[in-house]
Amino acid sequence: MDLVTTFLIAIGLAMDAFAVSLGAGTSPGRRSWRKVFRLAFHFGLFQGGMTFIGWLAGSTISRFISTFDHWIALVLLGFVGVRMVISGFKPEENASDCPVNDPSRGGTLVLLSIATSIDALAVGLSLAFIDGSIWFPAGVIAVVTLVLSALGVLLGQKLGCRFGRRMEILGGLILIGIGIRIVVSHLI
Rounded to whole angstroms, how far apart are CA atoms 141 and 14? Predict the structure, then answer.
């Protein structure tokens, strides 16, 4: 897989982590670089790790489904993308979408890391069907998520929760576009 495609997938996956980071940045309390690093590091680690786990699961079955794997990639990326878009359009029920406690500590951090990286599991599964190597894509996904999460926390301190949902919609649209590109390139 080429660098541009890998980078676009990484950006698409990182959008929900970015959106959560925006919200985390608005949480009250002392602003610190440790908080930014903890959140960004864990989001990046989980995003890259889940991509690898998905790839590992997919690579064991890829030889059995190689004739229609591009369609599976489209369905998985499309599913994740549509889910992100729908989530981005859901009205905010209350202010709880912006965390009021420190989301960069303890169980909250782990739960947020898992929740924002579930999509990476499906993407990793898709990558197993179209590419032989996972190390580079998983690394790019982890680094892009780390950087965007750090930026999200820092921007969240200034912009608030308002733009988080729009970023999730953009990420979903990117993943849908990548899925369509995979099918088109496989068919042509």
Answer: 8
